[in-house]
Amino acid sequence: MGIMKSFMVKGLEVQLPIFCPDATKGVVKGVGFDDLEKAGVKGVVVNTYHLANSLGLSLVKVVGGIKKFVNWYGLVISDSGGFQIMSLIQEKNLFGKITERGIHFKKNGKTEIFTPEKSIQMQFALGADIMICLDDFTAVDAGKNEIEKSVEQTVSWAKRCKEEFLQQIKLRKISEKDKPKLFAVIQGGESKKLRARCAKELIAISFDGFGFGGWPLKKDGSLNKEILKFTADLMPNDLPKYALGVGNPQAVVNCFRFGYTIFDCVLPTRDARHKRLYVFKEDLDKTDILSAQNFYEYLYIEDEKYRRDFRPIEQGCDCLTCRTYSRAFIHHLLRVEDPSYFRLATIHNVRFYMRLTEKLKSMNYE
Length: 366
Hints:
By secondary structure, the protein is α/β, with parallel strands linked by helices. It has helices at residues 33-38, 48-54, 57-63, 66-70, 82-91, 116-126, 144-172, 192-205, 225-234, 249-258, 267-273, 320-324, 327-335, 340-362, and strands at 6-9, 12-15, 18-21, 43-47, 75-79, 96-98, 103-107, 110-114, 130-132, 181-186, 209-212, 241-243, 262-265, 276-280, 296-300.
């Protein structure tokens, strides 16, 4: 398969594959970073735009970066912040516009501009280990001209991100050992021609890794396997391949088959809050995870049938929740609206994803 097994960044060895829960505003909802560490989490994803709004980068800078602020010393990936701003623009046409210069938007009645340079500067202020170039994405139903323009802008912005990245390294006098990594994002919608063009031009600029850009799902909600695999094949095999925003457990396995080794998604934490827990159908140690289909199922803990179910959420799970509490107790916490439900449910779902990636890590995929 030609998949990387590890890489070094800022003195930290990152074992692949890795799933990073979304700590959008510097926190994974419902749990502490000590809970994440005990669940086997090795990295998280933070969002540059949301952290700048909710926390203020000046405060993060004073304390020495996001890791020191939250007391987390695993991997930190910073999203460029562009997706969130552009999503608002696409949903509300009057909110702003996108130009070659950057993303123009209104904040507190004033027009601001979010540029590739500003995105990189903000990510350095956060002190992230892996930074993502600002890219221009399109809606799932975008036309050819719009997608082509998106590719042109993505490449142009990537060049500016790389230039600012090198400038920040120089200004901050960061050594090669302590240097973060910069990933570029390959756009092109469902056009293989545009995807190939985008990848070729980005590879020529030279980055430390590449990510899949755009929507990983088809209009019907199914995983766009063809375009995901095609895009992965465009990426150099000696660099990390990041499936941005992917996804549910089956999608993670499918994309691992295609060559992706870095994943992030809000699903495990969001589903926990929405009363949906993950359970492997069979003993994970005996499951051929790469060949199995429908290897997991959802347990809807709100259902009345769990009121007297004294088994753990999953018999083979080693998370704190399953080692300590029964389905009946978790169901009870939910019924009485006790906030500890969110912590215990989230711990379980996050640990499910860690067990999944640990299984993939242990497989012979040379």
